[in-house]
């Protein structure tokens, strides 16, 4: 988990934007995955949809009905390579990661 306020931090003086990469995160029963994504560049759409597909193709992926985070990952993974709509950026990646992680935690607590 990363606090959403991290996205509101102003860049250091003289710095132009953030890094050219970000991450998609996913929590399973046995692991916490972090998959690198691109924030810019000509391969951004393909790389980011492939990153989401890596997660949605995991045997541990809980499916789009599990929660909003999983639904976003599934929509991203299955979107067209001709459109960046639904690929998101650091804000959406953090939101999806936080949503799916918290959904996982709550469901884990109710199982115990």
Kindly estimate the percentage of residues that lie in beta strands according to DSSP: 5-15%
Task: Please estimate the helix content.
Answer: 40-55%
Number of strands: 2
**Mean pLDDT across all residues, rounded?**
88
Task: Produce a short descriptive summary.
This protein has 112 residues and is an alpha+beta fold. The chain contains three helices and two strands.
Architecture blueprint of SSEs:
Layout: E1 21-27, E2 32-38, H1 44-56, H2 68-77, H3 90-111
Antiparallel strand pairs: 1-2
Describe this structure as you would to a colleague.
- The chain is an alpha+beta fold and 112 residues long.
- Helices cover 40% and strands 12% of the residues.
- It has helices at residues 44-56, 68-77, 90-111, and strands spanning 21-27, 32-38.
- A two-stranded antiparallel sheet has the order 1-2.
- A hairpin with a 4-residue loop joins strand 1 (21-27) and strand 2.
- Helix 1 packs across helix 2 (68-77) and helix 2 packs across helix 3 (90-111).
Q: Which key terms come to mind for this protein?
A:
two-stranded antiparallel ribbon; globular; 12% strand; alpha+beta; 3 helices; 112 residues
